[in-house]
Amino acid sequence: METSEILKKVRKIEIKTRGLSQNIFAGQYHSAFKGRGMAFSEVREYQFGDDIRDIDWNVTARFHRPYVKVFEEERELTSMLLVDVSGSLDFGTTHQMKRELVTEIAATIAFSAIQNNDKIGVIFFSDKIEKYIPPKKGRKHILFIIRELLDFKPQSKKTDIAASVEFLTRMLKRRCTVFLLSDFYDRQDFSKQLQIANRKHDMVAVQVYDRRAKMLPDVGLMKVCDAETGHEMIIDTSSKKLRHAHTRYWMERQDQLSQTFRKSNVDWTSIATDEDYVKALILLFKKRA
After folding, report:
1. What is the mean pLDDT of the chain?
2. Which InterPro entries does this entry report, sorted A to Z (predicted)?
């Protein structure tokens, strides 16, 4: 992609997503995530209605009556975008490619973060860490991230979510809010790594998908290719049995994904390429708030 073309696309995405983050998401984002980063402030005597989990047992033992820790909201948070750049994202049959949808969602979240004076960083991953952009503030930094999202060329087409989440846990020492953006086409189990990461950070998952992953059209013979392995095959979509098997596989896969997130205590949403991602993100933010 030529530089002038990239700049046009960056500007277009900035206009759309910055407007959304200012007019729609700023309040939602603040209430959904701003209270999650808490810093210790002081201790005071226990009062009726206080959460017993906040009791400071050392101080309580010293003064022979219950004291609780008082926390205050941190003035700024760090948000990280954990972005899947594997080959399967280069697919879309209706409105746009999955990669394009991920870019718009990531840009909207990034602008929402800087509206709240938070830092934002990015980890691009395939089956390895492709690129790490450390968290910073400011519009210039956001535009750099969007440009990378638009024009990044990964070295690998495969996916390893577990490895990317492990890298995140190792790399970031302070607690942050993490948005994991992927289609989750990964045959390996990543639930253990997700559980560990979510104990340290505040993890949120956003799945992007194309309708054809859910339901095949009846168009006769069709050549399909696995974008991550390059394996090609011909399938007969006129077969009702095949179409039903395809839908059943999708439902089973979604159920398994839902169980993974539930076990890990990670909030998540699923957004199709022809769907209004604004509504889906607002619902996700409201649920968290």
Report:
1. 85
2. DUF58, vWFA_dom_sf
Q: What are the pLDDT digits (tens) for 35-53?
A: 555 555 678 888 887 878 8
CB 44 within 8 A of CB 10: no
| Angstrom distance (rounded) from CA 138 to CA 140 | 6
User: Residues 14, 17, 18, 20: what is their CA dihedral angle, to the nearest 10 degrees?
Assistant: 160
| Of the candidates 105, 85, 245, the residue with the CA atom closest to the CA atom of residue 164 | 85
CB count within 10 Å of CB 165 equals: 26
Question: What is the tens place of the pLDDT at every residue in 169-201?
Answer: 999 988 899 999 999 999 899 999 999 999 999
The whole-angstrom separation of Cα 209 and Cα 101 is: 9
Tens of pLDDT, residues 4-18? 676 677 777 777 777
